[in-house]
Amino acid sequence: MRRLRGNLPRVQAITRPWSIEPPPDPSADPATRHVVHGPAKRVVVCGDDPLAHRLVSELILQYGVHVTAIMPSAKRRHGPEIARLLSGHGGRVIEAERPDTAAFERADLAGADALALVKQDDIGNLDAALQAQEVNPKIRLVIRMFNLRLGHSVRRNFADVRVLSDAQMAAPAFVSEALGEVAPVHVRVAQRTLFVARRAEVRPDDVVCGLAATIGEDEPRLLPEEQEQADLVLAVANGERAATVVERGVHLEPRRRPRVERLRRWWRRQLHSPLRLLRGLVSRRLWVTAAALLAVLVAGSVVIAHYKHVSWWNAAYVTLLSELTGASPELESHWPEKVVTTLLGLVNVALIPVITAAVVEAVVNARLAIALGRLREPVSDHVVMVGLGNVGTRVMHSFVDLGVPVVVIDRDENARGAQAARARGVPFIVGDASNVETLKAASVDTCRALVVVSTDDQANLEAALEGRALKPDLRVILRLLDGRFADRVQRAFGITASRSVSYLAAPAFAAALLEREVIGTVPIDRRVLLLAEVPVCAGSQLDGRTVSAAQEVGGVRVLAVATDGERQTVWAPPGAYVLRADDLLTVVTTRLGLGDLLSRTGGTPS
Asked: Are strands 66-71 and 92-95 parallel, antiparallel or unpaired?
């Protein structure tokens, strides 16, 4: 509160009213949202996949950046869409089989401000980054990598680099939709850990900011003006969760914790697991045969107990130790005893082979299940996940870390996440998820959710529809590369949720290229909120203005202001707080809101 008291009269004189605009429609044509923020930067983007396409669109239409794209061909994959976008906004396309020194020289990388390497090839991106640094040692690098451990270990070899994982950014959205819970998002800001939660699940004093109003809304209302209306909030973690919540004078019991529910379900599964294990290892035909033979043994014991006037226990004893071992016939016996003795002789001949066959089949099936990673027993209340690529592997790890049973399906037994699945004991079924038999093998009819995250839109849609056919009320979360097609599919087929990885990740990549620190992303339905740190530059529009001038309903909310070289942090600054040059704003914002804020803080360098 260092400047507030001495500057109140001047503060009130310059405070401007907030600009209130409705949240942007994510399905609207991006061309209608073209904003330019001063002198354009020059950025080179390497790639031709959905993330590259979305990133180029974000840079051009949201930030007015001049983009040069390097790709193998402008006629394959997303090359045509990227080329059309660039041609309409003065950009260039450089066709090269791979981004190397020659391609960078043709793209004039020496005069560029930043380079984005977004191909799905960790080693290829790393090699390209090393070559790019030789061409322009001061270039800002933003590298897409799946293996973040490798990425972070090589950062010291570059002057200015950000390593990002689109899979890591998108995984929480798929996990939260599958479980019907809030996305497990945690970020570290100014010595505090912030997380996303429902307002009823945290103490009122721990709430930092209201993120969205989702209850009773057709579309979530992001960053509402009245913070109390937001049921989804950003809260500070203080080492414990509230046992009860007091709201409006009413004592409310907290929701049952998901971990407790998962423990209960696990215990129920353990009670029934031996029987399920036997059913899974031995075929139905052998079970029927063994049951018939057992019924004959029981009937024989009953007859012997009746005619020999012995106890049930003795009758069973005589049956097992005498009749099954081939007792001598007794001519004086009654005819029912003779019939039973004959039948028991036949049972003696058939029973041993049946038992042997059952044991052999159980052993073989168990070993095949272990070798192939298939289900060793029927399961229920689990998550079935299709696709073990970059995103699928991250989502699988998230489910395992949360203690949620998961079964994975992929066509390729050597998929990227196959080894990780086997290492973590996750059942892995090799097969086509659009095939009903494959889905049945994963027990889709008893699962809690089907998460389809492969990179093939057609196969994803087929798997989702086949899953719904097996279980009409199945919760289906679908990955589709085209965001607008995903919207139409969700409405037409009643899919629970559809998500685009590139839509979730591109804003963070774009902000990193513009040298803005995006410290977290919060997926809300098909929208994305960004947690970012934005400095106030000297002479910018916000230098000497107030926090209220920086905020925008539905677009930007200031969480904290770091001053004096980040040595002092003012959380939840009042609207009258005066901003100065070199202050660092921590904000939660929409994509459009971040672009507008950068223009007013002078954050878009020339």
From this structure: parallel
